[in-house]
Amino acid sequence: VQLQASGGGLVQAGGSLRLSCAGSGRTFSSYAVAWFRQAPGKEREFVTLISPAATIYAASVKGRFTTSRDNAKNTVDLQMNSLKPEDTAVYYCAATVRSLRTTTSTAYNYWGQGTLVTVSS
Fold it and tell me: What is the distance between the alpha carbons of residues 14 and 81, in angstroms, rounded to a whole number?
């Protein structure tokens, strides 16, 4: 599976951005696809995942971010609303079939290249 993330950019606090993760392969719809983010000087953290078994959000983004997938297009999108400066990070999409509910980055064996989201105050 190959992943390509896109959609990052610069936005003011309170604004919105939509990220997209395009995957390859006929079985992509069976994968768990997650978004992680890494801010400068911080560890990579879980944001959200979507799989045939579950949709899970980190507490810090619940109610503001929404993940969705289009199996016909092999894409997973992340709609980010009410953005805050603390959402500034490089966002990565990742995929796995090892577990359909895991929020642990080490369980994901396929990663996109990352896309930068900068939220100004």
Answer: 7
Retrieve residue 30's tokens.
């069976």
21: helix, coil or strand? strand
Q: Could you give phi then psi for residue 87, rounded to 5 degrees?
A: -85, -5
Among 92, 95, 93, residue whose Cα is nearest residue 110:
95
Residue 112 pLDDT class (50, 70, 90 cuts): very high
C-beta separation of 87 from 62 below 8 A:
no
Q: What is the DSSP letter of 44?
A: -
Pairing type for strands 110-111 and 115-120 reads: unpaired
Residues 42, 49 contacting (CB under 8 angstroms): no
Residues 36-92 have pLDDT tens digits of: 999 999 999 999 999 999 999 999 999 999 999 999 999 999 999 999 999 999 999
Q: Could you give the CA distance from residue 96 to residue 22 in angstroms, rounded to a whole number?
A: 14
